[in-house]
Design a protein that fits this description.
The complex is a heterodimer. Chain A is of the alpha+beta class. Chain A has 3 helices and 5 strands; from the N terminus they run E-H-E-E-H-E-E-H. In chain A, a hairpin with a 4-residue loop joins strand 4 and strand 5. In chain A, helix 2 packs antiparallel against helix 3. Classes of the chains: A alpha+beta, B alpha/beta. At the A-B interface, helix 1 and strand 3 of A face strand 4 and strand 9 of B.
């Protein structure tokens, strides 16, 4: 199974990075193996080894898929500004609360499920 | 006596090179900051512990040491230049030479640890400067709450805590190749050494002054890097370094005009005018002279005291000052090169100049200390010279009219003329203010009137000589004491 990447956009980086830390903690608490994505370190950076707004989930245990979808759903409900991009090597789903009607949510979750399951 | 203690850390090289790329200038940053902090003309720290490429244990040990040994009234500073990394829980870790990415907690220095040591420290001023990535993560709410509640808990309301972070909790901090320094460190050093850091007339650059300056300057040299700062216990200004006073072209022009005007009004002598103009023209001014000029321009110092200060001091005339600044920065290629007149730091030692305790302080503090030393006051401020002959004369006057004059005649012939003379001389020479002169003179006149009457009525006879001398001495002490105990303005005048 390939890694699933969850990327946060739509707000300022400081806010998103704090949000990402919370999501990371939630994901790990649910038994998912999640970490920050590798960052690109520019010359002279005193850090930058990690991308604070992107999370890599590398292992989904049984039942973790549901937990992941719940976390994503909760994220959308929590902050309408934040846009979420979930992808693997082949597919990508991008959505946000503002442009996503409630009835479309089921379809999005199915797409997410498909990415994770594959 | 309060102490100033610092631990400065710079880390370029890392054992876990795969996880932490080597930096180029972190150790240089550390050395430059240490030099500035150690220099008695700048940071005036009593102890600066330098840690180039240290292990996490070395950092822990030294930070805890200064935190624990500091006493009330002391200042402690921790400066770090190197990699910063946020752990999976979001907390900031300072990366040291022995840090392993997979054992981050055990092999790095957690900000939580530093906070803990700072919280238990008795130091009155505590400052942390972090020139590393994600440094803003050091200031989570928990930290601030902890510090404030701790401060309240132990009733140390005067304690000051300051944190300056090179970037926000999500930003990288950068090294600037052209400057060969970290962006934050470069701006701190440049701001302090060039005198560009603004804020107040204090002789000290405070942590808040530096924070305001770097928040503007760092984004200019490092795009996408926004320094952040937090401060609590603001009753105490955290003094980072002594301030460099400068005169820009506009102020120099104003001062030149002012000096010409004062000379035209006969407020200053030709000698002083020529000396000031020469010093301005040749940029040969030390810190004390610049302060006097600025005070004169702001009307905080009157022409009389200015002239006497200038004539007595005048190191420029001795060739003591060196042209245009940066003497104390000879190893720092990055010192600011501005158009402003900057100053030779080697000549700014006001305390030595006036033979006063070396504890750095404001001018008022120095004068306050001086008030307690009559001999010094006597020699430094000349008004006592003017007062004493007048009193000798007054004593003679008292003695004379005991035998030959009535009380009224004594007052008319001696008391009133002497009083007027005193007012004219004191105020004309700006030795004391008009109010002071009036108070003294009225006190003298009333006392003379009453006591002379008493002396005559009691028929002291031969003892009148001693009584008059004793009386004159008491008056003399009274007037000097009253002149010495006046407010700041009159002290400047004196």
């Amino acid at each position: 199974m390939t890694d699933v990447i969850l990327r946060l956009t739509g707000a300022d980086s400081e806010y998103l990075s704090e949000l990402a830390f919370e999501i990371l903690a939630d994901l790990n608490a649910e038994g998912l193996e999640a970490r920050h994505a590798e960052g690109t370190r520019a010359l002279g950076d005193k850090g930058g080894e990690i991308d604070l707004t992107t999370i890599v989930i590398s292992a989904f245990s049984t039942g973790a898929v549901t937990a992941f979808l719940n976390i994503v759903q909760g994220l959308i409900a929590r902050d309408k500004r934040v846009a979420i991009e979930v992808s693997d090597n082949e597919k990508m789903v991008k959505f946000d609360a503002v442009n996503t009607q409630p009835e479309a949510m089921t379809e999005i979750l199915e797409s997410l499920h498909k990415i994770i399951r594959d | 006596m309060s102490r100033r203690l610092a631990v400065v850390v710079g880390c370029n090289d890392f054992d876990d090179a795969g996880a932490f790329a080597a930096l180029d200038f972190a150790v240089d940053d550390m050395i430059a900051v240490a030099q500035l902090m150690k220099d008695s003309n700048w940071g005036a720290f009593d102890e600066v512990c330098q840690l180039p490429n240290p292990s996490s244990q070395e950092v822990r040990k030294n930070v805890e040491r200064i935190a624990r040994c500091a006493e009330n009234g002391d200042m402690i500073l921790v400066y770090f230049s190197g990699h910063g990394k946020r752990d999976i829980d979001g907390t900031l870790k300072l990366i040291t030479s022995d840090t392993e990415a997979d054992l981050l907690g055990a092999t790095s220095v957690a900000m939580e640890e530093i906070k803990q040591w700072f919280n238990i420290s008795r130091a009155s001023s505590k400052a942390i400067i972090l020139d590393c990535c994600y440094a803003g993560a050091a200031s989570d709410n928990k930290f601030k709450d902890n510090v404030e509640s701790k401060l309240a808990e132990i009733s140390r309301e005067s304690s000051g805590l300051f944190l300056l972070a090179a970037s926000s909790s999500s930003q990288s901090a950068k090294e600037i190749s052209e400057k060969q320094q970290g962006a934050l460190t470069h701006c701190i050093l440049e701001g302090i050494q060039s005198g560009a850091v603004g804020g107040g007339d204090s002789e000290w650059v405070t942590a808040s002054d530096v924070a305001s300056y770097v928040k503007n300057e760092v984004p200019r040299v490092s795009t996408g890097q926004s320094p952040q700062s937090w401060e609590s216990g603001s009753r105490v200004s955290i003094r980072l370094a002594k301030r460099v006073l400068t005169l820009n072209d506009e102020i120099r022009m104003n001062i030149s005009k002012l000096i010409s005007g004062l000379f035209a009004d006969d407020e200053i002598t030709q000698e002083v005018k020529a000396n000031v103009e020469d010093a301005l023209q040749r940029n040969k001014l030390d810190q004390l002279q610049i302060k006097w000029l600025l005070d004169l321009e702001k009307q905080k110092l009157k022409p009389g005291p200015f002239s006497s200060n200038w004539v007595q001091h005048s190191p420029a005339a001795d060739g003591g000052a060196v042209e245009i600044a940066s003497d104390g920065l000879e190893n720092n290629e990055n010192s600011a090169q501005t158009d402003e007149v900057s100053v030779d730091q080697s000549d700014i030692d006001l305390e030595e100049e006036l033979d006063i305790d070396s504890d750095p302080s404001s001018e008022i503090d120095i004068l306050d200390r001086d008030r307690g030393n009559f001999g010094r006051y006597w020699s430094k401020y000349t008004h006592a010279y003017y007062i004493s002959p007048l009193y000798l004369f007054y004593i003679y006057a008292l003695y004379s009219f005991f035998s030959t004059l009535t009380v009224v005649e004594g007052m008319v012939f001696y008391g009133i003329p002497v009083s007027f003379l005193a007012i004219i001389i004191w105020t004309r020479r700006r030795i004391v203010t008009v109010n002071e002169a009036l108070v003294c003179t009225i006190a003298i006149s009333v006392s003379a009137f009453l006591s002379t009457g008493v002396f005559v009525r009691l028929e002291f006879g031969d003892k009148a000589n001693l009584a008059a001398i004793g009386y004159g001495f008491i008056l003399f002490v009274f007037v000097v004491a009253s002149a010495m105990s006046n407010d700041e303005d009159s002290i400047h005048s004196a």
